[in-house]
Amino acid sequence: MYRVTNPTTGITSQEFNATTDTEADAALRRAAGAFPHWRDTPVASRCAAVIAVADSLLARRDELAELTTTEMGKPITAARAEIETSAAILRWNAEQAPARLRPEPVDGVTGACARVQRHPLGVVLGVMPWNFPFYQVARFAGPVLVTGNTVLLKHAPQCPTSALAWQELMAEQLPVPDSYVNVFATNEQVADLIGRPEVQGVSLTGSERAGSAVGAVAGAALKKVVLELGGSDPFIVLDDHDIDSVADSAVAARLNNSGQACAAPKRFIVAESAFERFAERFVAGMSRHQPADPREETTIIGPLASEQALRLLHGQVTDAVDRGARLHTGGHRIGDTGAFYAPTVLSNVTPGMRAYTEELFGPASVLYRVADDAAAVELANDSPYGLGSTVYAADEQRALDVARQLEVGMVAINGRRPNVPALPFGGVKRSGFGRELGCYGLDEFVNHKVVAMVSG
């Protein structure tokens, strides 16, 4: 069942039946039937259509933002910003694709003129999460569509109205019907769809558990797959330079999307010389920002996306405290209505506690004190995840030396990572593989065909 349950009130307002097996099969056949027509649509026309979708997003920004606020509790100002970012992603991919899809000469081939051509694969199945209902779809569908593939999209069960809005936007602007098809599929149907020959690739953004399941099925079916999974990003502070500003930046980064972002910092690893001042400022900042009604313009933190999400986070915090961790602030739900959770800061978290190895998906943080740079790197890498990271140091070369040693896919130095479509996004280890955004994202679901004209 796909349903809209407002996490601010706990009230379910809409319900949608999952597709039947027959309907899932028909959806796949529609996307597969559209593929040769969309593939053969000139690149310039495909890109113009995707830009038109971006323009439609902006034209309907306020309406679409309200869907997200209702479905998963995103503060309304952040929801509007997400729509704007999604439009920028679509536009960037459409603007870059014509040049990226031109045949690429290969140098150093004796006796032949060789080029690499980029051709679409077919239907690409996207399995999308609830935390960014528009941004995540744009990040996936933008490059898939402009490169000539068609999309079969399964959104999160708690985001059905966002999913339907995407379907409507695409249907209005894409000239080939069924180039983008939404399906309210079950997990079992997703597994079946991956095995179908019409599906040539799969992209999933979600939990480690979901990624393992989809990756196993895709591997057995020999399908190309991109997995963008969880993260427990380290935020490393190597000295006390401008420490108040650094701590304020840490608070803002942790509370982005009410703490429900895979690439948000969750572990704050601070040098001995800076720890006390950083901890004092960080705890005060986290305590000052309390969750409120996401429909209000001034709200920075809303509820967690569901009661289930709140229980998971509270279980992780409680486990740590029961095992000896120090609770500096928070650690409890707020009120009797809605999934509101107080911003939380822990320290003295050690191996064996869930908070040491698991991702904290909500406004909860862990502080660590380290003796030197080597200890900071060792602790940062002592995680099953390897998505993003942040390093602060007055000496930029020192920060670069630490960044080089981190087992992650992304590092930001002395600031937050710019949120722009040109920067590739992805990780290593249990955070998944493959890349979205940037030119690497445009290259994920294409056939790099080598054509060599042998000279006579």
From TrEMBL:
Query: Which Pfam family is one of this chain's hits?
Result: Aldedh
In terms of domain of life, where is this protein from? Bacteria
Arranged from A to Z, the UniProt key words for this protein are: Oxidoreductase
Q: Where is the Aldehyde dehydrogenase domain?
A: 2-451
Q: Which InterPro entries match?
A: Ald_DH/histidinol_DH, Ald_DH_C, Ald_DH_CS_CYS, Ald_DH_N, Aldehyde_DH_dom, GABD/Sad-like
Q: Which GO terms describe its molecular function?
A: succinate-semialdehyde dehydrogenase (NAD+) activity
What PANTHER family does this protein's entry cite?
Answer: SUCCINATE SEMIALDEHYDE DEHYDROGENASE [NAD(P)+] SAD
Family according to the record? Belongs to the aldehyde dehydrogenase family.
In Swiss-Prot or TrEMBL terms, this protein is called Succinate-semialdehyde dehydrogenase/glutarate-semialdehyde dehydrogenase
Source organism (scientific name): Tamaricihabitans halophyticus
